Amino acid sequence: MKGRKRHIVVDTMGLLLAVVVHTADIQDRDGAKLVLGKLLGRFPRLQLIWADGAYGGALVGWAYSLGGWLIQVVKRAANNHSFEVLPRRWVVERTLGWLGRNRRLSKDYEELPESSEAWVYISMIHLMLKRLRPA
Question: What dihedral do alpha carbons 84, 55, 121, 114 form, nearest 10°?
Fold first, then answer.
């Protein structure tokens, strides 16, 4: 199948905690299980995860039983058909925008999903190092 999906988990500043890249034929909820599995045991203070509407349903109970995480789904208003900044959702979108500035991530050049994941991590490391550099 052609195409890839990226699932990322970021902190409140938009810095990457985990990423999973897989083929586009996997449902979003199944991809979320893969990325949440990477968080297990790594971030003991993590309690609340804000998520897009695609990540609701049975995933909420699964995440609570796996890591004790409460998933709060951020939905847009049903009557609004124009652009709307959703609370906390923009943090992930901003991070995806930062990653999209990297030429290697702007298109799907990689043959393996693992290579694509590695380039996401490399891109985020580069971004964080630039921010640590004194002005």
Answer: -140
Per-domain residue ranges of the chain: 4-76+86-132
Q: CA of 76: how far to CAs of 22, 46, 86, 96, in Å?
A: 26, 24, 7, 19
How far apart (Å, rounded) are the C-alpha atoms in residues 111 and 120?
A: 14
Q: What dotted CATH number matches 4-76+86-132? A: 3.30.420
Beta bridge partners of 51: 73
d(CA 86, CA 77): 9
| CB contact at 8 A, 131 and 13 | no
Task: Quote the pTM value.
Answer: 0.84
Distance CA 81, CA 36 (A): 31
The tally of CA atoms less than 13 A away on the side-chain side of residue 65 is 6
Judged by DSSP in three states, 128 sits in helix
Please give the sequence-ordered ranges of beta strands (E in DSSP) within the chain, or none if there are none.
4-10, 16-23, 48-51, 70-73
pLDDT, tens only, 31-81: 999 999 999 999 999 999 998 888 888 999 999 999 999 998 887 666 766
